[in-house]
Amino acid sequence: MKNIRNKGFTLVEVLIVVVIMAVLAAVVIPQFSSTTDDARKSTAEFNLSTMRSLIQTYRGQHGGVLPIINGSQTLADVMTEKTKVDGTVDPTNGVYGPYLLEFPDNPYSSTSDVKIITNDPAVAGDVTAGNSGGWLYNAATGDIRLDRSPGFDW
User: Which residues contact 133 (CB under 8 A, 6 or more apart)?
Assistant: First the structure.
């Protein structure tokens, strides 16, 4: 009589493979999440540097005056449209700009909304205009920052 052996894996072998896969996943997944955060941080730093530079360019072209933000004119409007010498947005007759093709999103919140602040750094209850959003803009100093958790300062 022939000794017939079943072809297949035992329960113990399958469990060992599952445990090994779980350990590998636990080691690899945190590396991917830190890479994502590093990419967001790099994007945020690049966007901030670009916007700060362009705000200073605006200031230089408009006689030392920072972008004018009022009820009908947002920072995104000023930076993505042509402006007159007095700083008002005028896509047809403007002589300066546009400074950006489109206003960038905050890579952490995926929104390009801008809050106007009066204190630097921003404190609770400081918002004077705008929606909850991705950027904090101090119209008095021209500084722009990420709108992120307290203590997060760039």
Answer: 106, 109, 111, 112, 113, 114, 115, 147
Bridge partner list, 114 = 135
How does pLDDT run across 74-133, given as a tens digit for each residue? Answer: 899 999 999 998 888 999 999 998 999 999 998 888 888 888 887 755 554 444 433 455
- Residues ≥6 apart with Cβ < 8 Å to 129: 69, 71, 115, 116
Cβ–Cβ under 8 Å, residues 139 and 50 = no
Q: Do strands 144-146 and 114-117 pair parallel, antiparallel, or not at all (unpaired)?
A: unpaired
Given a contact cutoff of 8 angstroms between Cβ atoms, the answer to whether 89 and 76 are in contact is no
The pTM of the full predicted model, rounded to 2 decimals, is 0.70
Decide: helix, strand or coil at residue 2.
coil
Going 150 to 153 to 110 to 144, the CA torsion angle's sign is: positive
Burial class (CB in 10 A: 0-12, 13-18, 19+), 106: buried
Q: Where are the alpha helices (DSSP H) in the chain?
A: 11-61, 75-80
